[in-house]
Amino acid sequence: MIDHPRAERLDVPGGVLGLTVRGQGPLVVLLPGCGRPATDLDPLAEAIAAAGFEAVSMDYRGAGESRGLYAEPTLHAVAADAAAVIASRGPAPAIVVGHALGNRVARCLATDAPDAVRALVLIAAGGKVR
After folding, report:
1. For a pLDDT cut of 70, what percent of the chain falls above it?
2. Contact between 24 and 51 (Cβ < 8 Å)
3. What HEC string does 93-116 produce?
4. Virtual CA dihedral for 28, 129, 34, 120, nearest 10 degrees?
5. At 37, is the secondary structure helix, strand, or coil?
6. How many CB atoms within 10 Å of residue 129?
7. pLDDT of residue 129
């Protein structure tokens, strides 16, 4: 059975997040790189859903189907959006996958809302600090 992606929208303070949802099961939230749409992670999301998980890809505000501006654009503000996604999907915690900038958002989320995060998967987690 092919599980077709479902486009959803989530209202958050000051904006709307575009989500792509696939599969059913334990929650995995995918966070793309800076300024990139969540569709960048489609092949990974498809594999995660096929393995028995609910894969939810999130567009950051200003990318893809997301709208709105942050009152203060920080990693904490973006992480709060990711926390809202997790809260909207049911009981936490979730596995959080972050690619490039998304890995920094994922780590910030784990620091700001540790009860929301079961595990982190960091992809292309380079940077100035090891």
Report:
1. 95
2. no
3. CEEEEEECHHHHHHHHHHHHCHHH
4. 0
5. coil
6. 4
7. 63
Cβ atoms 28, 94 nearer than 8 A? yes
SS3 67: strand
Tokens 């079961």 belong to which residue? 118
Per the listing, tokens 């490039």 go with 100
3-state secondary structure of 79: helix
Prediction pTM value: 0.92
pLDDT digits (tens, 9 = 90+) for 67-123: 999 999 999 999 999 999 999 998 889 999 999 999 999 999 999 999 999 999 999
Residue 59: how many other CB atoms lie within 10 Å = 22
Task: Please name the helix (run of DSSP H) or strand (run of DSSP E) that holds residue 119, with its range, or none.
Answer: strand 117-123
